[in-house]
Design a protein that fits this description.
This protein has 423 residues and is an alpha/beta fold. It has 9 helices and 18 strands.
Length: 423
Amino acid sequence: MFVDKAVISVKAGKGGNGAVSFHREKYVAAGGPDGGDGGRGGSIILSVDTNMSTLMDFRYKKKYAAANGADGSSNNKAGKDGKDLTIRVPKGTVVRERDSGSVIVDMSDKNTFRLVRGGNGGWGNRHFATATRQAPRFAKGGLSGEELDVELELKLLADVGLVGYPNVGKSTLLSVVSKANPKIADYHFTTLFPNLGVVYFNDDFSFIIADIPGIIEGASDGTGLGHDFLRHIDRCRLILHVVDISGSEGRNPVNDFEIINEELRRYSPELAERPQIVAANKSDIAQDEELTKAFKEYIKERGYDLFLISAATNTGVKELISDTAAKLSALPPITVFEADYIPKPRMQGTPEDLVIENYDDVWTIEGEWIERLMQNVNFSDYESRMYFDRVLRNAGVYKRLEDMGIKDGDTISVYTMEFEYTE
């Protein structure tokens, strides 16, 4: 199954916690703190796999998480870093932030990319030893890793896009000019997913051509298959517009040409302005000379190059490919989407964001800032508790409580901790 769009959630690993430990050795008194640092959390890396051609792997697995870093230990031993998680994607995958739609990276000119970074490990207590604090009984907790919800969108890397109504001969033309073997049959929507082929024009020049499933009127609104696959023309430098000149299905080639271009325009005005070559196919069975003449005049008035061809008999195909190669040599390279995603600042919160509520003589405090602070405090140690008290006072938390009417002896509850307020 061809899958070209997927939404996944990625989460980097959390950093390991720093250790609280003291050196103990026979005949060595007061060995001092020797708590090691926590390991860094694993990151999530995108890697291009040239053997992948769809996003099928992401159809069922939606969540990816890298390993956490290990906690530090005694004897100044740092915790082991969490292992990075590598996610393989096809070349040409555009990665967007799901909510904003901003482009994070286009994996068409990169082989690897760090999508989310693991959290740093916390410091062990050895970092907090001073002349006056020789036995610190607290350490820092590891930081959380980054996390994102992203949309993966595969946009094929092709120089030329074959567009046109169903059953106009696009697949036949692709099979003639390249070694691709698309399904060919005399009914509509034979092609259910894009096919790629490499055209070797000469020893020095080749290009990639993509057969896009038949577009019909209303494709840009979701009718038929065109809406799903119009994105694969986004990168094409040149559009090869195939039209059934024979009128074998009772349609007028001029109307076909106008309808397809209107669908391209509605999907992307920029796409509609790309250079086009018109291939009037099935010329070997065209019997209405007036219809052919009217189409030629219509195309000439609009300044397009027109080639009467028959993909079935190979008539005119060589001249068509020669003109295509000449135009490609003068066009800029395949489009690479520029990143415009601005990472959001890590949510650490501030003392002003704390939510303080009063229930009789109990005051509850909640918020990300104080939760992160508590990760770095060892409440079984007096010095660590004094550090916690000092940070709250300097941050103005006690001032807020006093302004709200806290009284001596009231209880302050912070998540799993409770202590008595004293003036």
